[in-house]
Amino acid sequence: MHHRSIPDRILEGFNMLALLLIGFVMIFPFLYIFTVSFSSLSDFLNNDFLLWPKQWVTDAYEYILSSQNFLRSLGVTVFITIAGTIVNLFFTATMAYALARPIAGQRFFILFVLFTILFSAGMIPTYLVVKATGLLNSIWSLIIPVAISPFYLIVMRQFFLNIPEELHDAALIDGANEGQVFWKIVLPLSKPALAAFGLFYAVMHWNNYFTGILYLNDPSLWPIQVVLRQIVVINEPNSALGSTAAMLESPPPPETIQMAAILLATLPILLVYPFLQKHFAKGVMLGSVKG
Amino acid sequence: MKRAKGLSLILAGIFLAGGCTSNDTASKPAENEKDPNKKYTVTAIDFRFGDPPPKDGAGLKMINEKFNVDYQVQFVPQADYQEKLSAVVASGDVPDMVGFEAVDTRFAKWAGQGAFLPLDEYIGKYETLKNVPDHIWQSMKVNGKIYGIPTYYPEADLTPIIRKDWLDKLGLKMPKNYEELKAVALAFTKNDPDGNGKNDTYGFAMGEKINPDFDMGAYWNAESWLHKDKDGKYIPGMISDARKEMIQFFADLYKEKAITQDYAVLTWPDTNKEFFSGKAGIFVGAPRGMSEPYYAGLLELQPNAEFAPLYPFADPDGNTGYTATSGYGGITAISADLAKDPGKIKKILEMMEFGRTFYPREQRTPENKEFDWWWGNEGKGYTMQDGTAVLDPNFATEGKTPSTYYVDNAMWPPNEDVNEFYKDYKNEKVSKLAKELEEMHKSTKHYMNPVNGLVSETAQQKKEEFDQFLFDEQAKMIAGQRPVSEWDKMVEEFLNMGGQKMIEEYNSQIKGGEHWK
Q: Where is it chiefly localized (chain A) (predicted)?
């Protein structure tokens, strides 16, 4: 790392600058949201642009946290995210592993899975299935129908196929059965894949909005995104029906409250990223098989 | 093979077991229809703009006790209501009461297919139903029968308001025509009406979709069908010659910076901000539903701000008046399944009647037992402040009042003049503005849009596409990117997109008669 040539250093400098710039572009909207959420409404209205609160005001947060709805929905979403992700990973991993082993009918099942990627049933048929299975108005309606993402399943199967067969054989010789091979050898080696797909699944559950409204009749079960939308997105005037009712009936809440709501609803899922970072590290498999 | 069979049996068992938990809403034929103490289960689905009430609020219990029913209502956020309703109806469970936003394709289609109960025979039997003007009942008809009960909504639409203090400071009079209005907007832009020595003010606060459209009467309104083409057919205001004048008017002002310069990308809240931060001097207001926090913010910045409504201008036809709203804010339809249970129909209409009853302001007190119940009892659902009943701030989110559980919870006044909405505002200046707006609406005529309540298949499918196209082209003209002289070409394009078809469809249904009221 020492004695680098001048061009190398220039290149590195450029890289640094470019990355800093990109990082700033990513962080900036959050900074703005953060700033507005801690500003007073009059400060916000008076200034075209705020980069840092002129005076720290926590009214917006007090308003949001005083409402039962927001915290309850946050709780619901946390539950759906945790329980849903566990269900997702369990079913995706087991099925992917089974399809990665040489079993009878493997081809048929893989085609079966691929078929669901290409053709989806649509909203109403899915609703009918959820209704017929008695999941309507139950929190599990947001978890069970989306237990396996066919695309992630295919990718995960590919990952399992890349685990050397010799490991499997070695484990069997040591007296493990198939189940133990999966639990004790394959899964621990697959942490990067599990972390990656776990994150995708978790974000999917966290952002769930529409099916929450579709399948749940009880407002106390609605996920946080629904509540957030009620606070942030106002109903557009000039709808196809030309009704001004939307404009008059629900004037938008002040921006400061909107921004505070966005921050509170986004922060928890953002905090998951750093903890999963370490699992993305490569090289877990290095040296497991001596060639 | 054998194992697979067993598995499929287990699966089938799970499916069947699950089926039992779904609500069984089929109404069993009543053993004794004359039994007044029969407890009915009444189901309902409706949309909400704000937060829906909880499943177990005090208000719901009060409804169940008072009417001896088991009332099960679900509210869906307005933005997703149509999709959810489609799914619910497709699954074969039409709730007893179904809310609609307006006469749309779904309402017309389902009513036409016999999903709802014709209500004509009940209209004469209930006081509040008699209060509904005939032209609104006309809107509720599908194939000649009434299928919905309208929810009250004021006829006063959002109309232009102006900063009176700016007018006074610059020594200008209230504008009486577009020429004077233009002069005022230019003066607001150039003559420093707020007297802060900075060039930071302008005339019209405008946002995307050329909204508000600052029509000074139905003649210039984009949504009104008032003008006719050469064949004598009604055409939408969007393509009328009056609209062309408006676009020219805006284009001239835009050049002079008298209109929000980045209006084409401003959302509605941002448009509000232009006015409520004291930059723009002309905006819109209505007697009901203005946002007091916004006004309070502006008055904090500019304590001397005064507001006044702009009266409509006389149009070339000799009429003076704004377009009225459709006059209803929603529709309640009743499931056709109830036809075999007259007792239940009676019960539902009785419940609805209670919620639609109008009380003059002096009767909205705890002494009025009906009103006291409707607003969830004094001290729980509302409190009296200076002789006025004020709802608890969380009455809806915590379900404290029976009113918030109703599909149709707006009182239907005997006429438009008894509302006194201005008394709802605590802020003196906002209240004064609302009062003046009400007076203006009382003293001017209104245009009843002839397409209200009519269903055009083309409009349902393509109206948004049409609007997008017309707004885009007109925005280009305002910004000077396309000459206004190409107006006719734009209209031609619109007609060929399907606009002509929409015009035909509406005109085949528009009834004659006087639309000014």
A: membrane
Taking only the tens place, the pLDDT of each residue in A40-87 is 777 776 776 777 877 788 877 887 777 777 888 889 999 999 999 999
Mean pLDDT by runs of 10 across the 517 residues of chain B is: 42 39 41 65 90 89 95 90 92 92 87 93 92 90 92 91 96 95 96 91 93 94 94 94 96 95 86 91 90 87 95 94 91 94 94 93 92 93 88 85 92 87 89 95 93 86 91 94 94 95 94 84
Q: Indicate the residue of A135, A226, A252 with minimum beta-carbon distance to B269.
A: A252
Q: Are strands B307-309 and B159-163 parallel, antiparallel or unpaired?
A: antiparallel
Residue B124 in contact with partner chain A when CB distance is under 8 A: no
Tell me how many domains chain A contains.
2
Q: Are B132 and B150 in contact (CB under 8 A)?
A: yes
What CATH number corresponds to the domain at position A141?
1.10.3720.10
Q: Is B50 on the interface with A (CB under 8 A)?
A: yes
What part of B 219-278 touches A (C-beta under 8 Å)? 223, 268-269, 272-273, 276-277
Q: What is the pLDDT of residue A269?
A: 86
Give the structural domain span for B231: 159-323+426-507
CA distance B221 to B242: 8
What is the pTM assigned to this prediction?
Answer: 0.78
Q: Considering the domain boundaries, does residue B190 fall inside one? A: yes
A127, A132, A227 ranked by CB distance to B15: nearest: A132
Q: Do B289 and A123 touch (CB under 8 A)?
A: no
Residue A288's φ and ψ, nearest 5 degrees, are -75, -30
CA distances to B175, B288, B310 from B439, rounded to whole Å, are: 18, 13, 12
Residue with tokens 């009892």: B377
Residue A77 within any structural domain of the chain: yes
